[in-house]
């Protein structure tokens, strides 16, 4: 899986670093459908806190998990003034909600950078702001059951699938298990470091670029 560095200070639209990274992003998504993004805006303590709080969420009783509470978060970042993210969740404690907010903000920034690069590569510069204004975000926490001893290494945790959205950003709790299907039909492991994320092209992206 290609690795792309998003930690450059000069990574802004119109710069040499931006154009170079943009080329890497578009090529990786076309060839592999994904890439590993090295991104240091999400601090390790926030990442650890998020995974710690996720255990609290998973342990909530089923009747509480079935109750939905809608909250809006206003975020600000580099290229746009502000956006509202609607989080549909169970009734979290204030501390947990603040952790979710801190965790989400840098990932939204990364998502926007990648989408901006893709749209520029497609020659759609005039539609970037309109597209981003219509973008919605979903934060999903997923917990997979551990395989039984006899199944380890022989049986997948879940069946293969594709995401229907435009982009998916995956963060793993230092338990690697994600595999990517290459164009030649080969499955490859996507092992990432603690400050990296897997960025996946969804079905919508594939449709925009004709596969």
UniProtKB/TrEMBL annotation:
One Pfam family matching this protein: DIOX_N
Annotated Isopenicillin N synthase-like Fe(2+) 2OG dioxygenase domain residues: 139-211
Source domain of life: Eukaryota
Keywords for the protein's UniProt record, in alphabetical order: Iron, Metal-binding, Vitamin C
GO molecular function terms attached to this record: 2-oxoglutarate-dependent dioxygenase activity; L-ascorbic acid binding; metal ion binding
Keyword RNA-binding included in the entry's annotation: no
Gene3D superfamilies for the chain: B-lactam Antibiotic, Isopenicillin N Synthase, Chain
Keyword match GTP-binding: no
Residues annotated as domain Non-haem dioxygenase N-terminal: 1-68
Protein name: 2-oxoglutarate-dependent dioxygenase
């Amino acid at each position: 899986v290609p690795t792309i560095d998003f930690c450059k200070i000069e990574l802004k639209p119109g710069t040499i670093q931006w154009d170079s990274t943009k080329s890497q992003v578009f090529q990786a998504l076309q060839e592999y459908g994904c890439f590993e993004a090295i991104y240091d805006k999400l601090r390790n303590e926030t990442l650890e806190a998020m995974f710690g709080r996720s255990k609290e969420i998973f342990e909530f009783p089923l009747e509480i998990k079935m109750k939905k509470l809608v909250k809006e978060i206003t975020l600000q970042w580099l290229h746009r003034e502000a956006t509202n993210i609607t989080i549909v969740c169970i009734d979290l404690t204030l501390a947990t909600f603040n952790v979710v907010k801190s965790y989400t903000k840098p990932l939204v920034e990364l998502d926007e950078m990648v989408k901006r690069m893709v749209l520029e590569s497609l020659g759609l510069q005039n539609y970037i702001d309109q597209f981003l204004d219509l973008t919605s975000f979903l934060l999903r926490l997923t917990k997979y059951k551990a395989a039984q001893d006899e199944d380890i290494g022989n049986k997948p945790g879940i069946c293969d699938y594709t995401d229907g959205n435009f982009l998916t950003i995956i963060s793993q709790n230092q338990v690697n298990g994600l595999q990517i299907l290459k164009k030649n039909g080969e499955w490859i492991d996507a092992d990432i470091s603690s400050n990296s994320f897997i960025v996946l092209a969804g079905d919508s992206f594939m449709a925009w670029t004709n596969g």
